[in-house]
Amino acid sequence: IIPQVPQEFRDNPEKLGEYFIHSVDGKMVPLSAVVKISTNASPAAIEQFNQLNSSTISALPLPGVTTGDGLKVLEDLAKETLPDTFFVDYSGQSRQEKEQGNTILIAFAAAVVVIYLVLAAQFESFRDPLIIMMAVPLSIFGAIVPLNIGLGTLNIYTQVGLITLIGLITKHGILLVEFANQQREAHGMRRRDAIIASAKVRLRPILMT
Asked: CATH no. for residue 190?
């Protein structure tokens, strides 16, 4: 039960001092005789994050600045200015990047190993998969260059795209090697000539892809 006095007795803070209360000796005294009312500024609403009082910062990086660089600047500023009892947490895309950004190397390594093993079983050779996957580092380099010059950010969608790129480039390598092997078996072509012929046939589909 929360009691409440009529509106005319609580229009302003000064009227609170006119309330009479019992003192320690049982006498009725005005509230203004025992308390002092002061006014302080406070936020209209207290935000919470993970059940803790929080302050939210929303920002967009400038063109040419990646999300990772922006988060690093924020963390450095937090270490310099915030007390030890404060900490920084993230939500949305920034949280995804912090949680999953460290797994990209593991995902790349797993993708390469799985593709290599599948190719080794398909070609019944450990040499052909190595030849096929020699194009993967160059293709990854070509995809990362635009990120380094500010044309994109390394987020979760970029990581998925890079892993997809590994499979796509591997597919082109499979077709190149297989066509070259067919040329050598069917026409007795030398290795270099078979590779050149295979590259001529596959160049247009690769560029279209």
From this structure: 1.20.1640.10
pLDDT at 106: 80
**Residues 134 and 170 placed together within one structural domain of the fold:** yes
63 CB-side CA count, 13 A: 1
Does residue 45 lie in a domain region? no
- Residues 17, 63, single domain; the answer is no
Count of domains for the chain: 3
DSSP state letter for 107: H
Say whether pTM exceeds 0.70: no
The backbone region for 51, taken as left when phi is positive above 0, alpha when psi lies in -120 to 50, beta otherwise, is left
Q: Please tell me the distance from the alpha carbon of residue 43 to that of residue 54, in angstroms, as a whole number.
A: 12
Residues 6+ apart with CB under 8 A from 165: 139, 140, 143
pLDDT tens-place string over residues 33-67: 888 888 888 777 778 777 878 888 887 777 767 77
Amino acid in position 107: A
Query: Can you give the residue range of the structural domain that contains 165?
Result: 100-208
Within 13 Å, how many C-alpha atoms sit on residue 33's CB side?
11
Q: How far apart are CA 49 and CA 126, in angstroms?
A: 52
Strand partners, 63: none
